[in-house]
Amino acid sequence: MKRILSVLCITALLLTTLPLKAVANSTPAFQDSTNTSTWLWDTSEIVTNPDSIIQQLVDNNVKFLFLQVNDTIDINYYRSFISKATINMISVYALDGEANWVSDEGSPLQQDYINWLIEYQQSALTNEKFKGIHLDVEPYENENDWYDNRIIENYQNFIVKFRNHAIDLDLEFGIDIPFWFYKVKYNTKYGHGNLAKWLCKNVKSMTIMAYRDTASGSDGIIGICAAEMRLFNKYNVKGNIAVETGALEDGNEFVTFYEENQAYMYQQLDLVYEIYKDNPAFNGIAIHYFDSWMSMAK
Q1: pTM
Q2: CA separation for the pair 25, 264 (Å, rounded)
Q3: Which domains does the chain have, with CATH numbers?
Q4: If pLDDT is split at 50, 70 and 90, which confidence band does 23 have?
Q5: Which residues, in sequence order, are CB contacts of 185 under 8 Å at separation 6+?
Q6: Exposure pattern of 32-43 as b/e (b: 16+ CB <10 Å)?
Q7: Separation CA 3–CA 28 (nearest Å)
């Protein structure tokens, strides 16, 4: 009897440490050939639903997960979840950020994140560690005028600070940016010029929020990310092209796939992939965000 129980225990342990297999289905070209990434903002799900999340990520060939930092959750849940992701060849990045991080009172918010991440990385085993930092800070949502050079300088200070922290922690550093940053000019202590170009010199992994629900046309996904993809190519930046799947309060349905089904979205993303697949800067498609993507009708 003891021998049978021992065999059962060993079998159970092996099942929890072996990589999962994706459910057999026809895979869209962009998922089969690029580094698909997504955001998981509701971190409580790694407590209540970790195995299901991992399986869905595997089934959808997701290679990069941006997982929000939540200091109210016991770090052991992070350690367990990231270990399972690592087994399944999914790289997990520490996600966080809000517009007020670059307000005049934003430094403590930045520091809370850094303190948590340093403590976590120091306590985690190799297969439990984050692979990088991924920040979604949208400074133009501050109440102050975004085009005020003081706010832009705060943003640049923030970028340099976190780039240096990432170097110190031996982590990759990536950020989300809107498709129109190439139009923004700055005149700060960092000099003057085009903000997107400045970012390309300081950040080597960026995700363009190309939020539209159609690929083609001058105001489609392909067209609106073209300028920044050219900059990425020139400055050797890894660029992801991101789309939205969540419901938006302002009613601008054309910026999200929320009203469409997965099949339509995948068709549009395959068109984006066909255009950019030969661009050396193109790193893959990013889908914002995990929960709304998984909730879409097939």
Answers
A1: 0.92
A2: 16
A3: 27-295 (3.20.20.80)
A4: low
A5: 192, 193, 194, 195
A6: eebbbbbbbbeb
A7: 47
